[in-house]
Design goal:
The chain is an alpha+beta fold. The chain contains 7 helices and 5 strands. It has helices at about 5-20, 30-35, 70-85, 120-135, 135-145, 150-160, 165-175; strands at about 35-40, 50-55, 60-65, 90-95, 100-105. It has a 5-stranded mixed sheet. The structure holds zinc ion.
């Protein structure tokens, strides 16, 4: 599944509904639990945002506990994206560094098999998914009606409401054409 735009938004809305997650800020950990993934907060090296480890039926998301709360939420959402979009029946390990990812296809012996890196397209898909999950379009449309988005104070307020960075919110609003001049 590599939906984008409105199709991705519809798929994400279905996922949120199935997970019983309503309102904002979106409870990303509840979405992970719905997909049978356990979320762990652990100190990792600074350049590592998060890890998704899939081995058999065990699915673990490890997020760098040293990072800012908003970034941790984005990382968890990104890893859910890999789980939802890119996981087939194989054991896989995704390690998300700042801009790059290392992904290994493992055997029962563990994750020491030779690497095959995920594609830049998979990274873009995981980021698009994270953006759609953390900032569901219906909530954004409703809330932005009441705000002046060219006002920096309001941009900061709406980002705080969704518990995302102002940068992530700004990108999302542009994608949805909610920031285009009228
Ligand atoms: Zn990734």
């Amino acid at each position: 599944m590599a939906a984008k735009g409105a199709a991705l938004d519809r798929a994400v809305a279905g996922l949120l509904q199935a997970a019983g997650v309503n309102g904002v800020p979106v409870d990303v950990e509840a979405v992970a639990r719905h997909l049978n993934a356990q979320v762990h907060h652990q100190p990792l090296e600074d350049d590592v945002s998060g890890v998704l480890a899939i081995k058999g039926t065990a699915k673990h998301i490890i997020v760098n506990s040293l990072h800012h709360a908003n970034r941790k939420r984005f990382t968890i959402a990104h890893e859910i994206g890999h789980l939802w979009l890119h996981h087939d029946d194989r054991d896989r390990l995704f390690i998300d560094k700042q801009m790059t990812i290392y992904q290994r296809v493992g055997s029962a012996a563990g994750y020491t098999a030779p690497n095959s890196t995920t594609t830049p397209e998979e990274e873009r898909e995981a980021n698009r998914f994270a953006s759609a999950l953390l900032m569901p379009v219906e909530h954004l449309r409703r809330i932005t009606k009441e705000l002046d988005l060219f006002d920096e104070v309001d941009l900061s307020r709406i980002a705080a409401l969704f518990e995302v960075s102002e940068q992530a919110m700004s990108i999302r609003l542009q994608q949805l054409n909610l920031l285009s001049p009228t």
